[in-house]
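Try this one yourself first.
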């Protein structure tokens, strides 16, 4: 087996050299050979040489040979005579003989040694070993350029192999003691000084001619143009801070399945227990009523918007006779309507005043909310909800609730829920506004300006000139002038709109002023 391994390594070395010769001969790459010497190997008093050949831009091949013939006197006790051959292939990341590289190699050696420390031979005295070894290795290295002809390389790696040798009873003679075989692993290291044939090309001085650069391309203009919202008058302005206001398109008539407490935009006015008289000093009534009167008065004074409906829904708690609660809820709603009419001259036709009766939908929603929050009384409140869902007769339903759990549940309901139901209910103000024809014209023209049609641009300019006194039209008018070739008029419109705080016009003006400066600089250069 050993002889086969040795023969394979020898044959592989010869084949690698032949391949190297053929590839170099036929390659289109320039001829390049290197001669190297491993300084670390020299330190062991072993003369050595490596021949390397360029195969391609990133590939090279080489053969390392080392021979230590001394001591030539066989009677010398300490010796490490050997012959070493090692073909290798390298891949260079930055081009042959420059920078980082990795590779693989084959190793063959014939040796005759004694009294020399070895990592894989035990240290027994007066024994000589003579034999052969073969190995395969891998390595990494880096090459530094020292000039046209010289490089220095650092290499580190490892190899695994197989050796067969004879042991003899003395350092220079004696009978053979045994034949041994070993598998081994050893590190590899080299510090090579390398001579390049031929050297690197001489640097050719470059005469720099002045480069005349073309002027930079003109900054593209990306106009910003967004639709103009309708002007909704004073009502639309007030709506931003007063959710109680809503456009008339959102109005919904009241039905008793509707849960008004869920509408956070509504306002509520409170009434004392079983009373329908409106007291401004009860709870927060004064603040709520002043707010309703102020909002309504401002809209009525506006020519661009108007009050269309004041929706008032009176409610009563579920406690007590049904007929009495129905009357109480209606009277509470009417009391609020009369109060508003005393402060403002509003005809009855603008009011949608409804008595909502007993607030069972509100009451059940409150129970469900407390059950969902895992209140300590959740189980009892769930029983109350079951009664509401299963019993349609309101009088019977109330009696069953009062008897539930011997009155304990009803007591909790009176103290924590019913007190919040004694109010006039839901109050919303619905408005409308005069159709904003100017906004419609501006937006129609803006659509035309987004096309590539020249006739469309001129039509947009015609439309915008009909509303040129509206400040909202200035940004679109500036773009129309620009697309129609009237640049001075365009800049005037953009400046006017930008001065009014129009962010789109400010961006358009910034882009156009930048283009103007660029043109001036190009003309100077």
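Now uncover the answer:
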């Amino acid at each position: 087996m050993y002889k086969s391994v040795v023969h394979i390594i020898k044959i592989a070395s010869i084949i690698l050299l032949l391949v190297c010769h053929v590839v170099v001969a036929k390659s289109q790459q320039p001829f390049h050979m290197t001669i190297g010497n491993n300084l670390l190997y020299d330190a062991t008093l072993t003369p050595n040489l490596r021949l390397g050949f360029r195969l391609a831009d990133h590939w090279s091949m080489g053969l390392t040979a080392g021979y230590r013939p001394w001591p030539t006197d066989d009677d010398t006790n300490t010796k490490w005579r050997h012959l070493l051959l090692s073909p290798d292939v390298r891949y260079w990341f930055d081009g042959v003989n420059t920078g980082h590289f990795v590779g693989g190699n084959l190793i063959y050696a014939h040796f005759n040694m004694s009294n020399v420390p070895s990592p894989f031979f035990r240290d027994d005295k007066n024994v000589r070993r003579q034999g052969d070894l073969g190995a395969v290795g891998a390595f990494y290295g880096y090459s530094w350029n020292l000039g046209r002809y010289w490089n220095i390389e650092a290499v580190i790696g490892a190899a695994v192999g197989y050796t067969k040798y004879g042991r003899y009873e003395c350092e220079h003679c004696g009978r053979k003691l045994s034949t041994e075989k070993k598998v081994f692993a050893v590190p590899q290291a080299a510090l090579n000084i390398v001579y390049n044939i031929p050297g690197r090309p001489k640097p050719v001085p470059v005469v720099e001619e002045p480069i005349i650069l073309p002027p930079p391309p003109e900054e593209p203009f990306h106009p910003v143009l967004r639709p103009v919202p309708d002007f909704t008058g004073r009502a639309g302005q007030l709506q931003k801070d007063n959710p109680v206001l809503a456009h008339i398109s959102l109005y919904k008539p009241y039905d008793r399945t509707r849960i008004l407490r869920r509408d956070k935009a509504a306002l509520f006015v409170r009434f004392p227990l079983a009373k329908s008289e409106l007291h401004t000093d009860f709870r927060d009534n004064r603040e709520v009523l002043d707010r309703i009167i102020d909002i309504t008065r401002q809209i009525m004074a506006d020519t661009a918007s108007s009050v269309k409906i004041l929706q008032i829904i009176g409610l009563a708690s579920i406690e007590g006779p049904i007929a009495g609660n129905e009357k109480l809820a209606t009277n509470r709603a009417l009391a609020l309507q009369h109060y508003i009419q005393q402060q403002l001259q509003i005809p009855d036709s603008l009011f949608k005043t409804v008595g909502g009766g007993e607030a069972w939908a509100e009451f059940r929603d409150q129970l469900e909310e407390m059950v969902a929050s895992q209140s300590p009384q959740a189980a009892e409140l769930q029983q109350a909800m079951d009664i509401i869902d299963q019993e349609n007769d309101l009088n019977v339903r109330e009696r069953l609730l009062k008897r539930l759990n011997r009155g304990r549940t009803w007591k909790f309901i009176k103290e924590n829920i019913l007190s919040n139901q004694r109010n006039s209910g839901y109050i919303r103000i619905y408005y409308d506004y005069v159709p904003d024809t100017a906004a419609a014209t501006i937006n129609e023209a803006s659509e035309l300006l987004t096309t590539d049609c020249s006739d469309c641009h001129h039509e947009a300019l015609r439309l915008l000139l009909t509303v040129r006194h509206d400040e909202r039209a200035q940004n679109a008018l500036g773009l129309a002038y620009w697309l129609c070739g009237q640049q001075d008029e365009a800049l005037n419109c953009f400046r006017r709109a930008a001065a009014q705080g129009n962010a789109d016009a400010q961006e358009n003006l910034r882009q156009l002023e930048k283009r103007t400066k660029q043109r001036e600089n190009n003309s100077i250069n």
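Discussion: The chain has 14 helices and twelve strands. The radius of gyration is 51 Å.
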